[in-house]
């Protein structure tokens, strides 16, 4: 293996460029123990006082995923919820949610700027361009800023190879999905390049009205100006369009009648991200980088989740919406790393500036609800039809300039042998200058916060280590929340519109301890983490006496649990992986209603909905000696039961799911097949219902047994 250490590649990571010779076990293990996300610089696992996991190139390559959730769900303590066509929710130290409590990074840089969170951001990722994925569980706001609360996912891209490489392939399943993919690169003299592209298409799937297409292209060029100075450019462009089939009712789910209630809802996006990084190593103990970047993102949708229908008020009508959210970002981030001999001290410090102008509008559409036969109070909708669109009846209409500035620093040192102390802090300031078209007002809002962390690693033995960590996190309200009108204002009421300018950031305090153990000559590895996290000022809807709802920064929640992961490799033929989490997510102070007649006024002490206590992913892989280059595996995904509603009346049983994978490499050709939902189990990715006694559940149905086939050609020219 040739080792090329670009000391501060984008976020200070050490990159191992490998030739086509087979890696030895020691070096592979060395590579897997190096992490870059938790400390913004290459750090050994035993020196990192957080719960962090890495999904390696080997795991990504063998999974052959059609969507990135198939890879990420292999991480202990993580449940990425598939919403169809690469749309998703996330659950890391939180219930399954679309809230802005997760930070998604691409080579260390956030995919979205602060204040413009999108829970579907990972659908823009090119799966054929991934070298590895690192997942930090718990808050890392002290290094990365807001929204890094429940977890942070860093998708690390492929680097230019030393020797010329090229690969291309096709992938398809039995429900109309197909994908074409190609990638290649080389290093010629001082210049290295890598290009990767995919084109995905779904037609006539198992769910009606569920087509989508996605095209992504990634390009990277590295210019080694000198042994100590490098210039790196990285560009991504992607387009996406998807029907939004939405959820189904209970009867349709149980009968496997996978029929969408709409044929007009959609989501479309166009994204461009480009950056240029200059790195310099001043000496063996000092290095710096500066990155300038641009984001250009356009998102339009007629969302299925935006449909509002009441079975008790007027069951044959409903309301929907069409919206558009476009932004650009112009920014720069710089970082310096300095090492000292005294106490083996290392300092990482940096600053960020980001300017993101955004435009958003949303208007009302009138819908007709065609009902299924049913009892009064238990009616469900067979289909919706658009009756009229009202572009002049705006639900929101604003432009805003978002200015994000931040500075951060982290210090680590060894006060005594085998003990490493890490402390860090960051200050974020988000200023929003806005023009609100609904009331023709202008103004500005500032959300700022200083966050702190402190941790320690103690490694008394070669085979075991422990850590403890205190960390803070925060998440400002998304600006789409700020500009929603308060009930009873605006529109045709004759009362001037009022908006949620008073919303406060949610804050979190996290405490955790954990450790790792390696036994049986590195054949058995086990790691674990116990965590306790409290959140305050969380956003919630509170019912008012007139049955309208108010949006408040007033909730308090508690999240606690244990995460664990283990790998056992008894021989070269077998690899066994097991991982999961047991968690409790509870409302501490969460007032549900101000209406005196409501039987339940608050949710204090109740479990949060969509919060399974048990979840996990385990896998057994077999690489037979009698047929080299063959791989097989069986994967088990567990999602335990959880409450469908906030008032804890009805549970969904959860599910046990099995997937099987097989692949064979013959010379430069790889043939593979995956069977997802091996037992053809009837299950749903998510089930929810309102708090009323006669509310009907809605099911985000999961796919029946699916056969995925693919062939890939891999060419590598050795020097």
From TrEMBL:
Its main location: membrane. InterPro entries: Beta-barrel_TonB, Beta-barrel_TonB_sf, Plug_dom, Plug_dom_sf, TonB-dep_rcpt-like. Residues 1-17 form the signal peptide. PROSITE patterns: TONB_DEPENDENT_REC_3. Residues 214-678 form the TonB-dependent receptor-like beta-barrel domain. One of its GO terms (cellular component) is cell outer membrane. Pfam families: Plug (PF07715), TonB_dep_Rec_b-barrel (PF00593). It is found in: Cell outer membrane. Belongs to the TonB-dependent receptor family. This is TonB-dependent receptor. It comes from Flavobacterium shii.
């Amino acid at each position: 293996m040739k080792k090329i250490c670009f000391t501060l590649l984008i976020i200070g990571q050490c990159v191992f460029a490998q030739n086509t010779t087979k890696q030895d076990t020691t070096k592979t293990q060395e590579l897997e123990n190096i992490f870059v996300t938790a400390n913004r610089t290459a750090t050994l696992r035993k020196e990192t006082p957080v719960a962090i996991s890495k999904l390696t190139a080997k795991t990504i390559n063998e999974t052959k995923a059609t969507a990135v959730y198939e890879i990420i769900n292999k991480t202990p303590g993580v449940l990425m919820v598939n919403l169809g066509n690469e749309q998703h929710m996330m659950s890391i130290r939180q219930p399954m949610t679309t809230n802005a409590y997760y930070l998604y990074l691409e080579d260390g840089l956030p995919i979205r700027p602060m204040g413009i969170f999108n829970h579907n951001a990972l659908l823009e990722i090119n799966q054929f361009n991934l070298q590895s994925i690192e997942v930090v569980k718990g808050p890392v706001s002290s290094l990365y800023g807001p929204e890094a609360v429940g977890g942070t996912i860093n998708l690390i891209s492929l680097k230019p190879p030393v020797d010329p490489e090229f690969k291309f392939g096709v992938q398809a399943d039995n429900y109309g999905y197909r994908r074409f993919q190609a990638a290649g690169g080389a290093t010629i003299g001082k210049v290295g390049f890598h290009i990767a592209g995919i084109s995905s298409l779904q037609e006539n799937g198992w769910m009606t009205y569920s087509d989508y297409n996605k095209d992504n292209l990634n390009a990277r060029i590295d210019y080694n100006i000198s042994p100590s100075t490098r210039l790196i450019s990285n560009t991504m462009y992607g387009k996406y369009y998807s029907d939004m089939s939405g959820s189904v009712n209970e009867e349709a789910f149980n009968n496997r009648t996978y029929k969408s209630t709409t044929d007009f809802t959609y989501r479309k996006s166009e994204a461009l991200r480009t950056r240029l990084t200059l790195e310099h190593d001043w000496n063996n103990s000092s290095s710096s980088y500066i990155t300038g970047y641009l984001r250009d993102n356009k998102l339009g949708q007629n969302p299925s989740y935006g449909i509002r229908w009441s079975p008790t008020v007027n069951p044959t009508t409903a309301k929907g919406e069409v919206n558009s959210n476009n932004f650009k970002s112009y920014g720069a981030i710089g970082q310096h790393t300095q090492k000292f001999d005294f106490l083996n001290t290392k300092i990482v410090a940096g600053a960020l500036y980001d300017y993101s102008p955004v435009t958003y509008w949303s208007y009302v559409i009138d819908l007709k609800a065609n009902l299924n036969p049913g009892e009064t109070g238990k009616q469900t909708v067979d289909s919706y039809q658009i009756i009229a669109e009202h572009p002049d009846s705006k639900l929101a209409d604003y432009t805003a300039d978002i200015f994000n500035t931040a500075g951060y620093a982290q210090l680590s040192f060894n006060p005594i042998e085998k003990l490493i102390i890490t402390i860090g802090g960051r200050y974020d300031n988000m200023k929003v200058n806005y023009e609100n078209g609904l009331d023709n007002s202008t103004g500005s809002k500032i959300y700022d916060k200083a966050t702190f962390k402190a941790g320690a690693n103690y490694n008394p033995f070669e085979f075991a280590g422990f850590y403890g960590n205190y960390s803070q996190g925060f998440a400002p309200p998304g600006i789409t929340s700020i500009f929603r009108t308060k009930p009873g204002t605006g529109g045709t009421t004759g009362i001037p519109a009022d908006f949620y300018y008073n919303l406060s950031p949610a804050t979190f305090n996290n405490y955790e301890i954990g450790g790792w153990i390696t036994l049986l000559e590195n054949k058995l590895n086990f790691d674990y983490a116990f965590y306790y996290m409290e959140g305050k000022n969380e956003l919630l809807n509170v019912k008012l006496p007139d049955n309208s709802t108010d949006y408040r920064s007033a909730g308090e929640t508690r999240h606690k649990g244990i995460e664990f992961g283990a790998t056992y490799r008894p021989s070269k033929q077998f690899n066994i992986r097991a991982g999961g989490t047991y968690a409790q997510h509870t409302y501490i102070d969460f007032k549900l209603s101000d209406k005196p007649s409501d039987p339940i006024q608050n949710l204090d002490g109740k479990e949060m909905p969509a919060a399974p206590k048990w979840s996990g992913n385990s896998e057994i892989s077999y690489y037979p000696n009698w047929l080299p280059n063959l791989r097989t595996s069986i994967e088990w995904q567990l999602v335990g039961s959880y409450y469908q509603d906030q008032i804890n009346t009805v549970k969904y049983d959860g599910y046990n799911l099995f997937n099987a994978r097989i692949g064979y490499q013959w010379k430069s050709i790889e043939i593979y097949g995956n069977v997802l939902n091996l037992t053809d189990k009837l299950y749903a990715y998510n089930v929810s219902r309102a708090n009323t006694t006669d509310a009907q559940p809605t099911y985000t149905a999961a796919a029946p047994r699916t056969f995925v086939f693919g062939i890939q050609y891999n060419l590598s020219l050795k020097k």
